[in-house]
Amino acid sequence: MPRVKRGTIKLKRRRNILKQVKGYRLGRSTKEKQAKEAIAHSGVHAFSHRRDKKGVFRRLWNVRINAATRPLGFSYSSFIGSLKKKNIALDRKVLSQIAEENPDTFKRIVENLEK
Question: I need a labelling partner for 115 at 20 to 30 A (CA). Which of 11, 41, 94, 105 fits?
């Protein structure tokens, strides 16, 4: 069986792996075996954290809506409850943007609920 020299391909693969772990600490940034493991784990965390990010933003929108409704005499839960009773289909993201950027419009929405 002839001898196979894998120098260039092996080196290219190693460089690619080490390029991905640039900035990691200790052996994870210099040793190929530890680097491969670090890449695998980072991929798992990246996947789950992309899902978590959606919940984080929803909590942020809730806090913004609550902060905007308190001075107008509503709590967050009563505000969302009255929106559902009146069949106003604005999601939390849009409501928080309106509350932050256009407080007058948000105030009109709240006044519309009181009637």
Answer: 94
**pTM of the predicted structure, to 2 decimals:** 0.74
The end-to-end CA distance of the chain, in Å, is 88
Distance (Å, whole) CA 36 – CA 33: 5
Single-letter amino acid code for the residue at 67 = A
CA dist., res. 99 & res. 89, Å (int): 16
Q: Which residues contact 36 (CB under 8 A, 6 or more apart)?
A: 17
Q: CATH number, domain at 35?
A: 1.10.1900.20
Closest alpha carbon to 16 in 1, 34, 36, 2: 36
Domain that holds residue 66: 8-114
Query: Is 2 part of any domain?
Result: no
Tally the domains of the chain: 1
Q: Does residue 3 lie within any of the structural domains?
A: no
